């Protein structure tokens, strides 16, 4: 009985396939009056009866189009649209080949006179540098989100993590009516907004505020998506509430409310869970899958996950988090545009880790085993705003303040044992650290921009400040033992840290046009960076049982001050086909460091000439070549320069080197991008190579008691190169199914120089990581997304005592979603991982399986769902890593199997006259 629904589904698809027939329509679109070619005209085919979209394309640089499709209808309507021209349609009889010859289009006189003409539905329109899609032209489920529509658009790909790319270029922001929606995370808008409130989806090259104001084109390396709301949906509110509870006391709750009133928007959100979901979304199927979907052997040790750059947790183990936030946006054309948001987050984290490490030295190998237990919590507050004021059409002031206040405390217990090659214990270090801290920060950027003519002359002045304050109290109990000499060192200390960081930047830029699209750029930047760090260490005074015994050796009171004066000059040329530019900077750097407690002081001055250049050539509407070159400098940080030894860990002593030089790097990056509308194929190829001189590397020596002493030095001759290809192909058969597949091979090669116990070590690394994936959608009833990634890694060393290392990993994924029977949603997310580079006692493979079954109730306003996370209970958190002179195995706490039931409720109410015709204000770029 269970097979009957599937049999009926296959039967219906088969019957439709038998009646559907292939067709091809060709022609050339020209101006009817002067016979000029119309490149990028939209041509789409629809059914005559109900105007259902069948397929579409755009004309090439010769005005030629070729549309192939499949349909069971005998008659089809072909529609031609082009900006500022009258829409044209023809009804043709479906046959294998329809040759239309030259199709002439007439200029729309009303539109030329500024009269807005409402056209029939057009799936895609090209307006200068903007690609505009009609959301209603793409068939998706009635309850679909914006993300579901994006998956239907040609050249647009959405990863399982929500990351969006357009023809291989990453989408770095999603706007709603031209305004930032809640945060810089694009997935907040794409996953939470329903498709049925969206009118248009506009895609363009991302621009800086300066490029937007001056009318300059973006560099084309990232994309911006703007969602325009339907007029009848632009006044009202919409929201969602979701709650779930499961085994092992796992829970998750989310709430989101959006209010729209023409140009105004107010959004509120709240979330709380203990399944490592610090982000925010309303994915109907997969939202409750934790922070390690199919991780297998991967592990994230970053300093927390975030929503809108708000810290939430310490980034590892199990995190319980709660978030509350609000966002407001408003604009008035030619006067102002504002958006502001505030977030509060609380998190509680715990993590247990076991690390086994083999250290490879010229004198022989030794081993360290570490056990670490961590628990901590944070309270974070962050508010930010973007305020833009147009004093007049040529004069704009922008203010962007951000304020954050965070409190945290933690307990970290750590035990490390070192033994020689025979397994004899040499030393042990046990520490318990309790920390309680507070940090606050205020950042602001004020920009003043003035256009001086219509040819591109302008001046920009920017003032930027960053002010951070950190107060920290740490209590350390440590016992260091050296067994070869029966030595013990016990520490019971309290460390008070008071650190202030104040950075101020003043920059000016002036552009002088030499002729149309050719410019000279003059700039000057002054930057002052100052850090004051007072570190006071007290030993426990046993007689009073208080921390009053001042430890001068471990204490410090230093100031670190860097000033930068950077005059610059540049040449730039922009036209329709080519963008080219070069810049030259003269970096005058002054560095001052003083430790008033330890009595050390040094000053450094550098004068360094740096350049950068870029070249961007557009072959056609969908083909582009980009080349970029730059060389940069990076100063050593304070800890690398400080000449006073840090002996807080007697088994690992660290001392800086005040004679370090700045790091100098040179990088070349090239990419080629092409999308073929006729074949529905996209190609994005990229390559980069970088060279580093004066790389700062640690120099560690280990004595017979395995006590390590580390300092730093400069080394030259490091380089890295990488390349890859993203190829995609989409096939659409009428309304039967769509099939897309992607091939993504990647390559990496590098040479890194370092030191192994004071001896020069060269490591050459090579890796290749091809990935293939596909997406099949059958009549909006079934989605299947298989994927496979293979990774080969090889490391070769110049020292004979070091064995070369090579290993492979395999990752196979399968994601299926069924929307049949009606109102039922069944999802599976399966990942199999294999890693040959895992030490004895660790599993080499794991099968990670999430499953979800949901039913939509009350006219799809509610979804009742059950979810199984890690159904087979195989999720693991182990990995092996190799460095220049070590091999390390890691195992940490991971979220394990749980089951959860949840209920999601949607509500909305819209009305009113809607927004003005032109939406998006200044932030979405003029077309």
Automatic annotation (TrEMBL):
Keyword Ligase in record: no
Protein source organism: Croceivirga radicis
Outer membrane protein beta-barrel domain boundaries: 451-903
Name assigned to this protein: TonB-dependent receptor
Domain of life: Bacteria
One of the Pfam families matching this protein, by short name: OMP_b-brl_3
UniProt KW keywords: Receptor, Signal
Transmembrane parts of this sequence: none
Cross-referenced InterPro entries: CarboxyPept-like_regulatory, OMP_b-brl_3
Signal peptide location: 1-20
């Amino acid at each position: 009985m269970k097979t009957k629904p599937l049999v009926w589904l296959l039967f219906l698809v088969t019957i439709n396939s038998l009646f559907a027939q292939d067709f091809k329509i060709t022609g050339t679109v020209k101006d009817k009056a002067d016979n000029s070619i119309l490149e990028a005209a939209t041509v789409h085919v629809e059914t005559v009866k109900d105007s259902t979209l069948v397929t579409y394309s755009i004309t090439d640089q010769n005005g030629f189009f070729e549309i192939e499709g499949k349909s069971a209808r005998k008659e089809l309507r072909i529609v031609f649209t082009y900006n500022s021209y009258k829409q044209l349609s023809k009804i043709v009889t479906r046959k294998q080949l329809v040759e239309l010859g030259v199709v002439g289009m007439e200029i729309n006189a009303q539109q030329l006179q500024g009269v807005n003409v409402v056209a029939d539905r057009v799936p895609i329109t090209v307006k200068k540098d903007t690609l505009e899609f009609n959301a209603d032209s793409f068939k998706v489920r009635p309850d679909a989100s914006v993300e579901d529509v994006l998956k239907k658009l040609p050249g647009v790909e959405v990863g399982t993590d929500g990351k969006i790319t357009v023809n291989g270029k990453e989408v770095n922001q999603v706007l709603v009516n031209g305004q930032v929606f809640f945060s810089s995370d694009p997935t907040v808008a794409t996953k939470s907004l329903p498709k049925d409130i969206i009118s248009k989806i506009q895609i363009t090259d991302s621009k800086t505020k300066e490029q937007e104001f001056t009318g300059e084109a973006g560099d084309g390396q990232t994309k911006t998506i703007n969602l325009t709301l339907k007029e009848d949906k632009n006044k009202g509110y919409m929201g969602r509430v979701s709650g779930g509870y499961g085994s092992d006391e796992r829970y998750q709750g989310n709430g989101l409310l959006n209010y729209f009133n023409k140009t105004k928007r107010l959004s509120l959100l709240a979330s709380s869970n203990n399944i490592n979901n610090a982000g925010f979304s309303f994915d109907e199927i997969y939202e409750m899958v934790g922070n390690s979907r199919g991780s297998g052997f991967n592990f994230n040790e970053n300093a927390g996950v975030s929503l809108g750059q708000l810290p939430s947790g310490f980034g590892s183990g199990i995190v319980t988090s709660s978030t509350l936030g609000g966002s407001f946006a408003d604009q008035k054309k030619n006067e102002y545009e504002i958006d502001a948001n505030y977030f509060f987050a609380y998190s509680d984290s715990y993590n247990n880790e076991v690390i086994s490490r083999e250290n490879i030295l010229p004198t022989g190998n030794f081993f360290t085993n570490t056990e670490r237990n961590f628990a901590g919590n944070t309270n974070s507050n962050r508010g930010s705003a973007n305020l833009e004021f147009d004093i007049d059409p040529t004069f704009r002031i922008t203010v962007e303040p951000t304020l954050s206040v965070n409190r945290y405390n933690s307990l970290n217990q750590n035990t490390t044992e070192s033994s020689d090659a025979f397994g004899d214990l040499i030393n042990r270090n046990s520490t318990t650290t309790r920390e309680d801290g507070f940090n606050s920060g205020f950042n602001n950027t004020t920009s003043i921009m003035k256009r001086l003519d219509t040819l591109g002359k302008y001046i920009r002045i920017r003032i930027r400040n960053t002010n951070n304050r950190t107060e920290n109290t740490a209590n350390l109990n440590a016992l260091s033992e050296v067994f070869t000499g029966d030595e013990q060192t016990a520490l019971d200390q309290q460390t008070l840290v008071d650190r202030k960081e104040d950075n101020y930047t003043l920059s000016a830029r002036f552009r002088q046009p030499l002729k149309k699209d050719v410019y000279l750029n003059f700039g000057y930047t002054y930057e002052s960076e100052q850090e004051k760090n007072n570190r006071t260490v007290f030993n426990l005074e046993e007689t009073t049982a208080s921390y009053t015994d001042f430890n001068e050796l471990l204490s410090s009171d230093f100031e670190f001050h860097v000033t930068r004066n950077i005059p610059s000059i540049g040449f730039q040329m922009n036209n329709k086909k080519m963008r080219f530019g070069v810049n030259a900077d003269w970096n005058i750097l002054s560095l001052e460091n003083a430790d008033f407690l330890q009595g050390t002081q040094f000053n450094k001055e550098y004068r360094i000439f740096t350049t950068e250049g870029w070249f961007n050539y557009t072959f056609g509407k969908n083909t582009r070549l980009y080349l970029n070159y730059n060389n940069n400098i990076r100063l050593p940080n304070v800890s690398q320069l400080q000449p006073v030894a840090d002996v807080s860990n007697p088994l690992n002593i660290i001392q800086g080197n005040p004679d370090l030089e700045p790091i100098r790097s040179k990088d070349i990056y090239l990419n080629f991008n092409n999308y073929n509308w006729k074949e529905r194929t996209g190609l994005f190829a990229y390559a980069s190579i970088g060279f580093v001189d004066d790389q700062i590397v640690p120099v560690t020596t280990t004595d017979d008691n395995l006590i390590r002493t580390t300092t730093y030095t400069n080394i030259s001759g490091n380089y890295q190169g990488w390349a890859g290809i993203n190829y995609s192909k989409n096939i659409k058969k009428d309304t039967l199914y769509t099939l897309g597949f992607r091939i993504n091979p990647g390559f990496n090669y590098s040479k890194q120089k370092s030191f192994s116990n004071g001896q020069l070590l060269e490591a050459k690394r090579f890796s290749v990581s091809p990935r293939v994936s596909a997406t099949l959608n059958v009549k909006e009833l079934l989605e299947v997304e298989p994927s496979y990634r293979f990774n080969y890694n090889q490391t070769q060393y110049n020292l004979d005592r070091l064995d070369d290392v090579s290993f492979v990993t395999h990752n196979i994924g399968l994601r299926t979603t069924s929307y049949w029977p009606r109102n039922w949603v069944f999802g599976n997310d399966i990942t199999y991982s294999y890693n040959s580079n895992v030490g004895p006692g660790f599993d080499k493979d794991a099968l990670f399986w999430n499953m979800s079954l949901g039913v939509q109730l009350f006219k799809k306003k509610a979804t009742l769902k059950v979810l199984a996370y890690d159904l087979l209970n195989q999720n693991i958190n182990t990995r092996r890593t190799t460095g220049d002179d070590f091999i390390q195995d890691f195992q940490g706490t991971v979220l394990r199997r749980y089951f959860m039931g949840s209920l999601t409720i949607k509500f909305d109410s819209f009305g009113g006259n809607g927004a003005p015709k032109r939406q998006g204000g200044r932030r979405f770029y003029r077309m």
